[in-house]
Amino acid sequence: MSRRESWLLLTPGLALLVLAFFFPVAHLLVRSVVAGDLGGEWTLTGEHYARFFVDGYYLSVVERTLRLSLIITVACVLFGFPIAYLMVHGGPRLRFWLIVVTILPLMTSVVVRTFGWLVILGRGGLLATVLDGLGLAGRSFTLMHTETGIVLAMVQVLLPFMALTVAGVMHGIDPRLGEAARTMGCGFFGVLRHVVVPLSIPGIVSGSLLVFALSISSFITPGLVGGVRLPVLASSIYQQVLGTLDWPFAAAQSVLLLLAAFAVIAPYAALVRRRDLAA
Amino acid sequence: MTRFSLIAVAGALALAAGVAQGKEQLVVNSFGGAYEKVHRELVITPFEQLHDVEVVMVTAYSADTLAQLRAQKGNPKFDVVHFSGGLEATAAAEGLLAPIAASELSNYAQMYPYAVRNLDKGEGPAYSAAVIGILYDTEKVNPAPSSWRDLSRPEFAGHVVLTDISNNWGLLSFLMMNRVAGGSLDDIGPGLAEVKRILPGATVVSKSPEIQQAFAQSDAWIAPYAQDYAFTLTKAGLPVRFVQPREGAAFSPITVNLVAGTKQRELAVKFIDFSLRAEASAGWAETFRYSPTNKAAKLSPEAAAGVISSEQAAQQLTSFDPIAIGNNRSAWTDQWNRAIAK
Amino acid sequence: MVGGVPLAAKAAAAVLVAACVTFMLVPLAVVVASSFSASEFLVFPPRGFSLRWYEEILGSREYTGAAWTSLRLAAVVTALSLLIGTAVAIALVRGRIPGTRTLVALFLSPLVLPTIIFGIGLLMVFSHYGDGPSFTALAVGHVVVTLPYVVRTVAAVLEGADPSVEEAARTMGANAWQRYWHVVIPQCRAGMLAGAFFAFNISFDEAVIALFLRVPGSETLPLTIYSKLEFSPDPSVAAASSVLIGLTVLLVVLMERALGIQSLTR
Question: What is the ipTM of this complex?
Answer without folding.
Answer: 0.91
